[in-house]
Structure prediction request, 459 residues.
Amino acid sequence: MINVEHLYKSFGKNEVLKDISIEIKQGEVVSVIGPSGSGKSTFLRCINLLETPTEGNITVASVDLTDKKTNVTKAREKIGMVFQHFHLFPHLTVLENLTYAPLKVKRISRAEAEEKGLALLERVGLSDKQDAYPSSLSGGQKQRVAIARALAMEPDLMLFDEPTSALDPEMVKEVLDVMKDLAESGMTMLVVTHEMGFAREVADRVIFLDQGLLIEEGEPHTFFNNPQSDRAKDFLDKIL
Amino acid sequence: MNLDWSQIVPYIPFMLEGIWVTLQFVIVSIVFGFIIGTVLALFKIGSLKPLRLFADVYTSMFRGTPLILQLMIIYLAVPQLTGYDISPFLSAVLAFGLNSSAYVSEIIRAGISAVDKGQTEAAMALGVPYRQMMIDIILPQALKNILPALMNEFITLTKESAIVSTIGYLDLMRRGQVVGANLYRNFEPLLFVGLIYWGLVMVLSLLGKWVERRLSKGD
Ligand SMILES: Nc1ncnc2c1ncn2[C@@H]1O[C@H](COP(=O)(O)OP(=O)(O)OP(=O)(O)O)[C@@H](O)[C@H]1O
Ligand SMILES: [Mg+2]
Prediction:
């Protein structure tokens, strides 16, 4: 599903990602963890080209994103992204947030878009909020709408960048539950998170970044109980 | 106090006519300035360096020199250089329109860049093309920042329009001066004209407040 080969990314002289290679299979849920500034967000943002890689190849669903001939805008339709700070469209209602891209980008009919939108709202438990504006929602509700908005484009793959970091503790669970449900439905997911519980329980694989290097990867149980590298050990000691 | 309002009564229609004369070129200037200003703003946020540079230099020039000088240059220098006998009306519209466009472009640019960058990223991540994103997502949000500032610019333009009296254009201001010279009494006609300007600006301000209220309904 995703194939990253020798990915490098620099901001000016600052080399943020160094020679990252990884392959992610269809339906796999991969957690990306690592200290602040290690390049987790940059890595994720390279996969839908919100950041342009300095070097290397990225293929998503057999489309080579780093090929100059690829229509990046088109390719992004199939890659959903959920941000730490939601970024819902504040001037649109909840349902309009969900139907906007299907209507304007995929050009499906309004009736179909609304039907799908309502079904998604039900799935994330927010059927009663379809006409509300984002400003009237709690953080957890906003994030669930943001997930539904991304799903409305029927993506092959979902990227999450610390989806629960901006939430009050009591709202973390409702969002993680939606993500868990999504993982069980077979969605391919790449999740940057500080929620080790999620990484442990839901992820099929954990990758650990530090200073732009992919230091270690493995099955969660092995990684958390028996990390191989000193850097991963240090990191886990600090947070667990 | 030695005010005698009765003397200006016969001149009142003459002065009131000035409202229309002033409004005429103010409206044309605003529209002209708004169109050019929008184009300049697009240059400024676009990715083409030469256009960006042009828009920046243009803005800096028009904001960095006195408006009255710009008016004089257009009114006096154009005939001298090209032989074309430019009318006061056309000079005024050009000077005010070009000058205003510099401010308008800055207002629009600032309004757009004040929209959270996350909005652009969210739209891009959904595969929304640039043009559509601008029209549906960014501009509606930017308008909330832009419209109040734009209204201020129109108010400023309305007041500053009095400068055209210096090139002999018979606007509201000039008419006040003419009446003053006829009567050998300046205070009353100037005060009268002043009240009219104030009234015009009040109408514009109220209009602005109304637009602002309508825009903030979504929050
Ligand atoms: N747009 C940018 N311009 C310049 N430098 C950037 C940019 N984005 C990120 N960086 C730098 O890249 C490095 C990695 O940042 P990144 O946001 O990917 O880290 P992160 O692992 O997501 O950290 P956090 O856990 O704090 O979110 C940092 O040193 C950051 O300063
Ligand atoms: Mg980050």
Remarks:
- DSSP finds nine helices and ten strands in chain A.
- The CA atoms of residues 99 and 113 of chain A lie 5 Å apart.
- The beta strands of chain A are 2-11, 14-24, 29-33, 55-60, 63-64, 79-82, 157-161, 188-192, 205-210, 213-218.
